[in-house]
Automatic annotation (TrEMBL):
Name under which the protein is recorded: Cell division ATP-binding protein FtsE
GO cellular component: plasma membrane
High-level lineage: Bacteria, Pseudomonadati, Bacteroidota, Cytophagia, Cytophagales
InterPro entries: AAA+_ATPase, ABC_transporter-like_ATP-bd, ABC_transporter-like_CS, ABC_transpr_LolD-like, P-loop_NTPase
Alphabetized SMART domains for the sequence: AAA
Organism: Pontibacter ummariensis
GO biological process: cell division
ABC transporter domain residues: 9-235
Domain of life from the UniProt record: Bacteria
Length: 236
C-alpha cells in the first residue's frame, strides 16, 4: 500500500503526440487523490490522446509526467502492466469479452494481473459486482445485459485492483439520459470513497448536474477551470 501524498497525476510542460503531429503542448496540471475532473473539448481536440498518454498507450516524448507514482518519461515497456494495475480504464465501447460470462471476464483480468487463489478471486469478483449493483450478474453472458449494465461491468472490471484513479473516455456516450445518470451516480459514489476520476465527456448536462473541476482541450492547449475561467458551452 502506498502512503504517498503526492498527486495521482502530475504533468509539467507535457506535449501529446499522434505520430509526428503535436496534438497538445505545454500541458501542466495535477490531479490529487480523490479529485473528480472532467476533460472536455471539441471532437479531435485531443482528449483521448491525452488519456492514452496518461495510461502509457502513447509514449511521453516531451515534458515530465507521473501517474500513480510511475514516471512516464522513458517508462520501460515491462513497467506498463504495473502502471495499468494502479489505474482503471473505461471506454465508451464496452470491450467486454462476449464469449464468456461476467465472472469469467473479471477473473480473466485478475489472473492476468497475478491473482491465483480461486476463493480470493471469487470473493473479489463478488465485491466489485456488489459495488456496481450487479451482484446477481456473475453467471450471465454480456449479451444478456443492457448497455447500462454492461458499462457497470466494465466499471467493476476497472475497480478490480483498487485503482487510485479511473480514466474514463466518454463512459456515458452510448447510453440514454436516465441510464447515463445512473452511471454518473456510480462514478460519484466511487469517487466519494477516495478514487480519483478523470472523465472525458461531451455531455454538458452531466457537468451541469454534477459540477466539478474541468480541463478543456482547446487550440492545442489544456485550460484548467481551477486556474482560469472559460466558457463551457462552446467546445461541445
Ligand atoms: N491513431 C491515430 N493516429 C494518428 N492520428 C490520430 C490517431 N488518433 C487520433 N489522431 C488525431 O489526433 C487528434 C486528436 O484526436 P483525439 O482522438 O485525441 O481527440 P478527442 O478530443 O478525443 O476527439 P473525440 O471527442 O472525437 O473522441 C485528431 O487530430 C486526430 O485526428
Amino acid at each position: 500500500m502506498s502512503f504517498s501524498s503526492s498527486p495521482v497525476v502530475s504533468l509539467r510542460d507535457v506535449a501529446v503526440y499522434q505520430d509526428v503531429n503535436t496534438v497538445l503542448s505545454n500541458v501542466s496540471f495535477d490531479i490529487d487523490k480523490g479529485d473528480f475532473v472532467y476533460l472536455v473539448g471539441r471532437t479531435g481536440s485531443g482528449k483521448s490522446s491525452l488519456l492514452k498518454t496518461l495510461y502509457a498507450d502513447l509514449p511521453l516524448l516531451s515534458g515530465v509526467a507521473a501517474v500513480a507514482d510511475f514516471k512516464l518519461n522513458k517508462l520501460p515497456r515491462k513497467q506498463v502492466p504495473y502502471l495499468r494495475r494502479k489505474v482503471g480504464i473505461i471506454f465508451q465501447d464496452f470491450q467486454l469479452l462476449f464469449d464468456r460470462t461476467v465472472a469469467e471476464n473479471l477473473s480473466f483480468v485478475l489472473r492476468a494481473t497475478g491473482w491465483q487463489d480461486k476463493s480470493r478471486i471469487k470473493q473479489r469478483i463478488s465485491e466489485v459486482l456488489m459495488r456496481v449493483g450487479l451482484d446477481a450478474a456473475a453467471s450471465k453472458m454480456p449479451h444478456q445485459l443492457s448497455g447500462g449494465e454492461q458499462q457497470r461491468i466494465v466499471i467493476a472490471r476497472a475497480l478490480l485492483n483498487e485503482p487510485v484513479i479511473l480514466f474514463a473516455d466518454e463512459p456515458t456516450g452510448n447510453l440514454d439520459p436516465i441510464v447515463a445518470d445512473g452511471i454518473m451516480q456510480l462514478f460519484m459514489e466511487i469517487n466519494r470513497s477516495g478514487t480519483a476520476v478523470l472523465m472525458a465527456t461531451h455531455n454538458y448536462e452531466i457537468i451541469h448536474r454534477y459540477p466539478k473541476r474541468v480541463l478543456k482541450c482547446e487550440h492545442g492547449k489544456v485550460l484548467d477551470s481551477q486556474v482560469e475561467e472559460f466558457g463551457l458551452v462552446t467546445g461541445f
